[in-house]
Design a protein that fits this description.
Structural class of chain A: mainly alpha
Strand order of the largest sheet of chain B: 1-2
CATH architecture of chain B: Orthogonal Bundle
Number of helices of chain B: 11
Largest sheet of chain B: 2 strands, antiparallel
Number of domains of chain B: 1
Order of helices and strands of chain B: HHHHEEHHHHHHH
CATH topology of chain B: ABC transporter involved in vitamin B12 uptake, BtuC
Oligomer: heterodimer
Shape of chain A: globular
CATH class of chain B: Mainly Alpha
Structural class of chain B: mainly alpha
Number of helices of chain A: 16
Strand content of chain A: under 5%
Radius of gyration of chain A: 19 Å
Strand order of the largest sheet of chain A: 1-2
């Protein structure tokens, strides 16, 4: 009964959020809040997507940038080749991201801990190198993009992207929440705590890992797809920037990975701090703050913000006693 | 375009480069290979050492190799401290050490990178010494003397560490702790202190390795990212903890890199070590001389 009521509250919250975002795009004139807000929304979606594999399953993915960049370049290639609309670009990016996730899953099925993490970095660098040598999308120099005209209810492209990214956040959170409450989530948590024991008690660990890789990858690539239109420009070294990886990882771990709300909180907190610091001081300082916060939280508050707020999550997220 | 001379030249340079890769990887071979610490920050420590050498060379005009030797004790202490923090916060508590330990070192690597950028800027830096900039000619191809110096020192360093680990009392203790920590504890030794000391040695070696890094080529703050691939590729390919394997694997990597560089051009170079790493992980995860 409470679960049912929780569900209603959640979807009502989602509806209110989307309506608020939509009306904000209609009322607020100034474009800057959307420009900054887009980045925060992007990080929320990335962090939530990361935590599906990194949080529930305990596989530390350093390759967020690989999926993000693949999303960016799927959109770029498709747009350049066919002029496909944004929705199609995002759907295609999600499909490619899911395929890549499947590949990563297959390749790394037997790798654990640090080996998995290093393999994901390796993948990111290899894909980046391929894109750098891919002339059609501009190679290492990057590519300029002309935004198509904006669609009906919106009066500027940035506002539309802001709304689109808000929808992606809702999709990511919805999926993460579903996984968390379903057999998949419990299976992932079981394999996180003890993979061998989970395997022995009949949890289909390999299948679950593959599913988690695919869903997480599809979401990350989908989030990356609008980035090219947002910047009107794409180049390999910024699309595949390692900062995306450290941000997604840091935001999830700082927020706490036991519940989907953790990455959301972490991303909002760090994302807005970053936006503020990047404007007021410099972008180096904000990476420094990110790194220091990550180390501090990992050392002193292993369960993240939600662990500090609600002690009962400590037990659930704790793994081995 | 394919000529034997070109290939031979690439192989020779590759062997030189490979020994250099061995020197930058032996530390990781101890800390990750023997001690099982997920030391993703190893390449960041390496680049930090290079900047230390650069600073000494720039302000006091000290030879880079001497400067590298001079910062070695400092790095030893740094390593002791880093392991102590890692042990107290992760290994000792046991639970969930994997995820958070990796994230911890990843965060440390990023902090070091940014601090270097704040202090030195993003420009490339290099050192000056009498042997940098000259080269020896052998008919068709030339070998830069800086490569030869790096090769000789790197080889010496790797062999020295291999001898240390197999012949001395402390070295054998380090290998023992890698083999069976519990047994060592039952013998009345303190495995944590041995591991801490080993991590100190692994970090101290980076003083010299950092000097070699800046001798071989100019450095920049984000260079550590490329070396994540190279060092982990070498250590995993070698078989965790095998020092002689490290030398062989590093030479294989060096030769592969120079051959691809000569055949296909520099834009493919960054991917090679990572591709080899993935291949090794997928096909033979225990490495060439795995334990």
């Amino acid at each position: 009964m409470t679960k049912h009521r929780n569900s209603i509250a959640f979807w009502a919250g989602v509806a209110i959020f989307l309506v608020a975002v939509l009306s904000m795009t209609q009322i607020v004139r100034n474009e800057y809040p959307f420009f900054a807000g887009y980045v925060i929304l992007q990080f929320i979606a990335l962090a939530v997507a990361w935590s599906i594999l990194g949080g529930y399953a305990g596989y530390v993915n350093f390759g967020t940038n690989a999926f993000f960049g693949v999303g960016v370049y799927t959109a770029v290639a498709l747009f350049k080749a066919t002029g496909a609309p944004l929705v199609v670009q995002i759907a295609a990016a999600a499909a490619v991201g899911m395929t890549l996730g499947f590949g990563v899953g297959l390749l790394t099925l037997r790798m654990r801990g640090i080996f998995f993490s290093i393999a994901t970095i390796a993948l990111a660098i290899i894909i980046e190198t391929f894109v750098m040598n891919w002339r059609f999308v501009g190679g290492a120099a990057g590519i300029q993009l002309q935004r198509p005209p904006v669609m009906a209810p919106f009066d500027s492209y940035v506002k539309m992207l802001f709304f689109v990214q808000a929808v992606l956040v809702v999709i990511a959170v919805g999926i993460a929440r579903y996984i968390q409450n379903s057999r998949i989530g419990r299976g992932l948590q079981a394999l996180r705590d003890d993979e061998l024991a989970a395997e022995c008690t009949g949890v289909p660990t390999l299948k679950l890992k593959l599913v988690a890789c695919m869903i997480s990858g599809a979401l990350m690539s989908a989030v990356g797809a609008p980035a090219a239109m947002y910047l009107q420009y794409a180049d390999p070294s910024s699309a595949f920037n390692l900062t995306y990886s450290v941000s997604a990882l840091a935001m999830s771990l700082i927020g706490g990975t036991a519940h989907w709300i953790g990455p959301v909180l972490g991303a909002i907190l760090l994302g807005s701090t970053q936006q503020f610091l990047a404007v007021t001081i410099s972008s180096e300082i904000n990476v420094l703050v990110l790194g220091i916060m990550l180390v501090l939280f990992v050392v002193a508050a292993p369960k993240g913000i939600i662990g500090l707020l609600r002690p009962r999550y400590r037990l659930r997220a704790g793994g081995k006693p | 375009m394919f000529s034997m001379d070109l290939l031979l030249g690439a192989v020779v340079l590759g062997v030189l480069l490979g020994c250099f890769y061995a020197a930058v990887s032996v530390g990781l071979s101890v800390s990750f290979g023997l001690l099982d610490v997920p030391h993703v920050a190893h390449p960041a420590f390496l680049v930090l050492a290079s900047y230390g050498v650069y600073q000494l060379n720039e302000s006091y005009d000290i030879d880079p190799l001497v400067a590298g030797l001079a910062i070695t004790p400092l790095f030893f202490l740094f390593g002791l401290l880093a392991y102590r923090v890692y042990y107290e916060t992760f290994e000792k508590r046991g639970s969930d050490a994997g995820v958070r330990g990796i994230a911890f070192f990843f965060g440390i690597a990023f902090i070091i990178e940014v601090l270097i950028i704040l202090q030195f800027g993003v420009d490339q830096r290099s050192v000056s010494a009498t042997y940098i900039g000259k080269s020896w000619r052998f008919g068709e191809f030339r070998i830069p003397i800086r490569q030869l110096v790096a090769f000789a020192v790197a080889l010496g360093l790797t062999v020295l560490l291999a001898v240390y680990l197999s012949k001395t009392f402390m070295g054998r203790a380090i290998r023992a702790v890698a083999q069976d920590e519990e047994a060592l504890r039952l013998m009345g030794a303190n495995p944590v202190r041995i591991k801490q000391f080993a991590f100190g040695i692994a970090t101290a070696v980076l003083g010299i390795a950092g000097a070699l890094l800046i001798i071989v080529a100019p450095i920049e703050p984000t260079l550590d990212r490329a070396y994540i691939g190279r060092t982990f590729c070498v250590v995993v390919m070698a078989g965790l903890g095998s020092i002689s394997g490290t030398l062989i694997a590093a030479i294989i990597l060096g030769v592969a890199e120079t051959i691809v560089l000569t055949m296909f051009g520099a834009s493919w170079a960054p991917a090679i070590s990572f591709a080899m790493l993935l291949a090794v992980l997928a096909v033979r995860p225990q490495g060439l001389l795995g334990r």
